[in-house]
Every structure is written in C-alpha cells, then in structure tokens.
Write a structure and sequence with these properties.
371 residues, mainly beta, eight-stranded mixed beta sheet, five-stranded mixed beta sheet, 3 helices, 5% helix, globular
Length: 371
C-alpha cells in the first residue's frame, strides 16, 4: 500500500484504520503457561544476556530473577512516588551492557510541585552476593513537574544502539500533549547519556522541542522496534480508540484533537478522518483492550509468530498477537484469554515468551509451545 511507503519516507499519508476491538479470544491456546514467581504489582521485564531477568514492581522494588523463579532484591533503587498508575516503571538493558553493565529505569519521582517522570541510568553490580544499582544518575526529567497518572515511561533503543527513545504520557492533562514546551504526550529521542541528538527534527531548538521525536500521544505503554528497523508504539485511548501507530519523526498523532474514542463523560472527540494533517493509527481497538507491553517475536519456539508484535491487554485480560501483511499493514491475528490483566511481555533468548500480571500478587508466566 502506498501509505506505508509514504509513512516510512516521512510524508503524511492516511488509509482506513482497522478496528480490531470486537475480536474474540481464540478457543484454544497454542502454549503452556507455567507460573514461575509472584510479585507485588509487577510492571516491567528486561532480559539479561544470560537469560536472567530484571523485574520492577510499581511500589518501588526491583529484582534479579532466574528462569526457575529465584528472586534477589536489588539495592539502591531510587525513591518513587507510587500512587495509582505511577511508581517504578520500565527497566531496559543498555546496548553496551556486556561491557558497561548499565541499565536504565523510569519512575515517577516525588517533588514539591507534584511527581515527575524521570529516566535514570545506573550500573548493575553483582558482587559479594549482593545486587545493587551503583551510581544512579538522572539523565532526563519531565518538565514541568506535576500531573496525574498516564506517565508513559517506556524505553526503547534503536537497532544501532546509539539512541534511546522514551514515551511520556500526558499525565492526565490532555492539552499538554499539543504543547511543544511540555514534556507530556511525546516520544523523545535522546543520546544514551540523556543529551539531545543533533539530528532530531527540531534539534536547532532547545529543551523539550529539541528532544521531541513525535507528539500528540495520550498514554503510551508500548514502544519497540521491529526487525525491519521501524518503530511502533501503542497507546491507550479514552473511552474507545486504543491505537497502534507507526512512529515517524516529526509527526503529530493527534491527541487530544482527534481520537477513535470519546471522553469518559460521553462528550465526543473528532475522529482522525476529520484531520488528515494528523497521523491516524493503522490499527485501533474499540472496544478497548488497554494495551500494555510490546515485544516483537523473532524466536524459534513459535515459528508461526515470527515478525509478530505481542501485546498485553489489561482491560482485555489477554495476550494479543498482531501480524503484518506484506504491504506493512498490521492487524490482530489472535488473542488469548489469560484470565488476568497482562502488564508486560518479553521474549527470552531461547524464544520462550514471558508475561507478567498486573496484580498483587501478580504472576510471572513462561509460555512455551503446547506439547
């Protein structure tokens, strides 16, 4: 389709978005789900090269976890403002982890003016039978501070391992997503040390505009690169209109000017078709699934899933698989009822799929092909 080519080239193009909101779960699951460990409201999974995991809990704890479920508490985790949707959020392994042992975490930080989303880099130290975050340094802070939930906070690295992408939610202040001077409702592109790349769309500016890659996002809890190098993001809509977007630098994805959902009080929001100058989602869900977690599958355990995006569903209590047609158009291929809210999805080095439940206790589950 021409619109995919146009989007990749960085030009505005539109097509009819696919609504997968009414899809029903598959009757049979093609995998066994084994419970490995339990956590207090877990939020994110990140795999180390040796197959162990880092797992965050929203109230503020972080663990090193083996694939058999042994947990070691990680020390020196920064204090977080844990309330509602906020707290300790994402964790990601540095592209240079093998040589620098660095990890990145996001969380909402307490402040007198209200909590603010921050990005911190630290060295993961495993010495003397202790695991700690050494020399944690904040390399980015949300400005201005304050706001409610919907923090975003998802980290992704480009395939070259030279830049970091960070989602920032609107913090329940919708109009801020269209304010270029506020770090809300944006995807930011940073150097690995938190500085601003010289080739960003508005690099000649300063502050938030110079760091902004895209704008007009509501509550983005999924960000990942596909094997072809394209960057995808999903975000929660209001009452209806969860979105899967192909991220193109410099583009505006419309929130709160347009949506495929309406406000919670029932007042309508103009649809994407009314504003062709704004980017429409290629796939959306109405009724919503409340997407959380995003991983592209390139493993060998589930060869049929190769190239698919795996998404957790909070509201849908499901694992959703999105496939891509040869022309690049995404569509929901399958969803499986997991019986609980799914917060994150990750793929292990051996190709197994791991998910965590948004609950207390929330289980860590390993998915392997049905025998």
């Amino acid at each position: 389709m021409a619109f995919v080519v146009g989007l990749v080239a960085g030009t505005t193009a539109h097509a009819d978005s696919i609504n997968a909101g009414g899809r029903k779960p598959s009757a049979v699951r093609p995998f066994d789900a084994k419970s490995i460990a339990e956590f207090d409201t877990p939020w994110a999974i990140a795999f180390l090269p040796d197959g162990r995991m880092l797992i965050t809990e929203k109230p503020g704890r972080m663990f090193l976890v083996t694939q058999s479920g042994q947990k070691r508490d990680i020390g020196n985790v920064p204090a977080v403002a844990a309330r509602g949707q906020n707290g300790l959020l994402d964790v990601a392994i540095s592209p240079g982890f093998a040589t620098n042992s660095q990890v990145y975490i996001t969380y909402t930080e307490p402040s007198a003016e209200g909590s603010r989303l921050v990005l911190t880099r630290a060295e993961l130290s495993l010495a003397n039978d202790r695991v700690t975050l050494n020399d944690p340094k904040v390399i980015w802070r949300q400005t201005p501070s304050g706001g409610g939930g919907q923090p975003g906070g998802i980290i992704a690295f480009d395939p070259q391992g030279t830049h970091l992408f960070l989602t920032v939610g609107d913090r329940m202040q919708p109009t801020s997503a269209q304010d270029p001077r506020q770090a809300r409702g944006k995807v930011l592109r940073l150097n690995l040390d938190g500085s601003t790349p010289s080739d960003n769309p508005q690099a000649e500016d300063k502050g938030v505009p110079a760091q902004t890659w895209t704008t007009g996002h509501r509550n983005p809890y999924g960000l990942a690169f596909a094997s072809d190098g394209r960057l995808w993001l999903h975000e929660m809509g209001p009452r209806g209109g969860d979105e899967l977007n192909l991220i193109v630098p410099g583009k505006n994805y419309g929130w709160p000017l347009v949506s495929n959902g309406d406000n919670y009080d029932g007042t309508p929001i103009p649809r994407h078709a009314t504003r062709p100058n704004l980017e429409a989602p290629l796939l959306y869900w109405d009724p919503v699934i409340a997407p959380a977690g995003l991983a592209f599958y390139e493993g060998t355990m589930f060869p049929h899933w190769k190239g698919s995006a795996l998404i957790g569903g909070l509201r849908a209590q499901a694992l959703v698989r999105v496939a891509f047609r040869p022309d690049g158009q995404p569509d929901e291929a399958e969803r499986w009822d997991m019986g609980n809210r799914i917060r994150d999805v990750a793929v292990a080095p051996d190709g197994a799929v791991w998910i965590i439940e948004d609950d207390s206790p929330g289980r860590l589950l390993r998915l392997t092909p049905m025998k």
